[in-house]
Specification:
The protein is mostly helical. It has 18 helices and no strands. It is 74% helix and 0% strand.
Length: 445
C-alpha cells in the first residue's frame, strides 16, 4: 500500500441508525413486491408459506450472529472480502473480490436501475428506450451523490429507507382494509407444484443484503458493541415486516390467489383502492429499487476499495478520498461496470429479465462465498484464538454449523434450479480464476 493510500482512510462516522438505514434499505428491495407469489406457488399451504418467511428471518439471524463475531473481531471496510482473505489467503479473496465486482454487486445495481426505469417510465416515458435512459441516469446520479461524501450518501439512504418502510406499511394497511370474504371470493382455485427448497431460494434472495453491514465495520462508531446491535435490529425489523406483509397478501387474495399473482402487491392495492392503488404500487417499487441501488453502491465500492489495496493490478481502486471520506475511484469504477451492464442488458430489459436473471446469474456464486464466510469463523477461531472477540456466537459450534448447512443447501438448490444462468455466473468466476493466476497479490493479513 502506498503512503498516499495510508494517509487517507475510512473514519468511524456512522451511527447504529445509519447502519440500520443502509441494511434495511438494501434488504427491503423490490423483491418483497414480487417474490411472495413465487413462494406461495412453491409451498403447499398458507402455513408453510409463512413458515418459509419466518425461517428466512431465523436463518438470516443465524448468519448475522456469525457476521457480528467476524466484524467485531476483524473490522474492515472489505467485509466478506477481508474475512475470506484472513481465513483462506489472497487466492480465495481475489475470486470473491472479482465476483462481487463483476457479478454480485454491479449486477444487482444494474437490475435495480432497470426496475426503477421500468416503473418510472410508466409515469413519464422518455421514448422507446425510456427504461434504459432512466437506468443510466439513476446509476450516474447515485454514484455522483456518493462521490460527494459518505454523509450525503447515507443521509439520502436514510430518507429513502423511511419512504420504503412506509410503502410496505401502506400495503399492509391496504390488505387489512379488505374484508376477508371479499378476498376469498377473489382467489382462483389452482396451485403450482410445491417445492419448499425452491421457495426458500426465493425467500432468502428477498432477505439478501443484511451481510452488507459488514462492509461498514470500519466506519461504524464503537463497532465492537454496535455491529451486533445494527444487525439484530435490522433483521428484526425486516422479519416482522416480511412475515406480516405475506400474511396480509394471503389474507387479501387467499392462498391460491397469492400463488397466482405475479403482481401481488398491485393486486392487493387494487382490491383496496381500485386502479389508482395499483398505480401507486409502481411508485413504491421504484422507491424500493432506488433505495436498494443506493445502498448497493455504498457497500459495493467499499469492497472494491479493499480489493484494490491488496491486488496490484487493481491498486487504483484502493484510494480513499479524505475530502468526502469515501472511495471515489472505486465508486467511479463500479459505476462504469454497472453502466456497461445496463447497456448490455438494454435489449433484454423486460420485467422477466430483471428478477429471473438476478436469481440465475448471482445466486450460485453468492451462496458459494456465503458458505465460505460461514466456515471462516471456524478457521479463524483455530488460527487466531487469541484475537479479541467482543462478541462471540452463542451456542458455538451449533449456530454457525446450522448457518453453514443452510448455505450449502441453498447453494445446491440454486444450482439445481438454475442451469444456463448459473453456468454464466460460474463462467465469469472462472475468468476471474484465470486472471488470479496471472496477477500478484500481497500476503493475507
Amino acid at each position: 500500500m502506498t503512503k498516499a493510500q495510508q494517509s487517507a482512510a475510512p473514519k468511524p462516522l456512522l451511527s447504529v441508525g445509519d447502519a440500520v438505514g443502509i441494511t434495511v434499505g438494501i434488504v427491503i428491495g423490490a423483491g418483497i413486491f414480487a417474490t411472495p407469489f413465487l413462494v406461495a406457488s412453491n409451498t403447499s399451504s398458507a402455513g408453510s408459506a409463512l413458515l418459509a418467511w419466518t425461517l428466512g428471518g431465523v436463518v438470516s439471524l443465524l448468519g448475522a450472529l456469525v457476521y457480528a463475531e467476524l466484524a467485531s473481531a476483524f473490522p474492515s471496510t472489505g467485509g466478506d472480502y477481508h474475512f475470506l482473505r484472513r481465513a483462506y489467503g489472497p487466492r480465495v479473496s481475489f475470486l470473491f473480490g472479482w465476483a462481487r465486482m463483476t457479478v454480485i454487486q454491479t449486477g444487482s445495481i444494474a437490475v435495480l436501475a432497470f426496475v426503477f426505469g421500468d416503473y418510472a417510465s410508466q409515469a413519464l416515458s422518455l421514448g422507446p428506450q425510456s427504461s434504459v435512459i432512466y437506468a443510466v441516469l439513476i446509476v450516474a446520479a447515485l454514484t455522483g451523490l456518493n462521490i460527494l461524501g459518505v454523509r450525503e450518501g447515507v443521509r439520502t439512504q436514510n430518507v429513502l429507507t423511511v419512504l420504503e418502510v412506509l410503502g410496505v406499511l401502506l400495503v399492509i394497511g391496504a390488505g387489512l382494509s379488505v374484508p376477508a370474504a371479499t378476498a376469498a371470493a377473489a382467489a382462483p382455485a389452482s396451485q403450482g407444484t410445491p417445492s419448499f427448497g425452491l421457495a426458500m431460494v426465493f425467500v432468502l434472495l428477498t432477505y439478501g443484503g443484511w451481510n452488507e453491514a459488514a462492509y461498514l465495520s470500519n466506519e461504524l462508531r464503537d463497532v465492537k458493541r454496535n455491529m451486533i446491535r445494527a444487525l439484530v435490529l435490522s433483521l428484526s425489523i425486516v422479519t416482522i415486516l416480511y412475515v406480516t406483509i405475506n400474511w396480509v397478501y394471503i389474507r387479501a387474495l387467499g392462498f391460491a390467489g397469492a400463488g397466482q399473482s405475479p403482481q401481488i402487491a398491485a393486486d392487493v392495492m387494487r382490491l383496496a383502492f381500485g386502479d389508482g392503488g395499483a398505480r401507486l404500487i409502481g411508485v413504491l417499487v421504484a422507491i424500493s429499487a432506488l433505495t436498494s441501488a443506493n445502498a448497493s453502491i455504498i457497500t459495493g465500492a467499499r469492497s472494491s476499495y479493499a480489493f484494490g489495496r491488496d491486488v496490484k493490478m487493481f491498486s487504483f481502486l484502493g484510494r480513499w478520498s479524505s475530502r468526502g471520506s469515501t472511495p471515489v475511484i472505486a465508486l467511479l469504477f463500479q459505476g462504469g461496470i454497472a453502466l456497461a451492464l445496463v447497456l448490455f442488458g438494454a435489449a433484454a430489459s423486460s420485467t422477466n429479465y430483471k428478477l429471473q436473471t438476478m436469481i440465475e446469474y448471482t445466486a450460485p456464486v453468492f451462496w458459494l462465498f456465503f458458505l465460505l464466510v460461514g466456515i471462516s469463523l471456524f478457521v479463524l477461531r483455530q488460527r487466531e484464538p487469541r484475537a479479541e472477540r467482543p462478541f462471540r456466537v452463542p451456542l458455538y459450534p451449533i449456530t454457525p454449523i446450522l448457518f453453514c448447512l443452510t448455505a450449502a443447501y441453498l447453494l445446491y438448490s440454486s444450482v439445481n434450479y438454475v442451469q444456463i444462468g448459473a453456468m454464466v455466473g460460474l463462467a465469469v468466476l472462472a475468468v476471474g480464476a484465470i486472471i488470479m493466476l496471472l496477477v500478484k497479490t500481497e500476503p493475507g493479513r
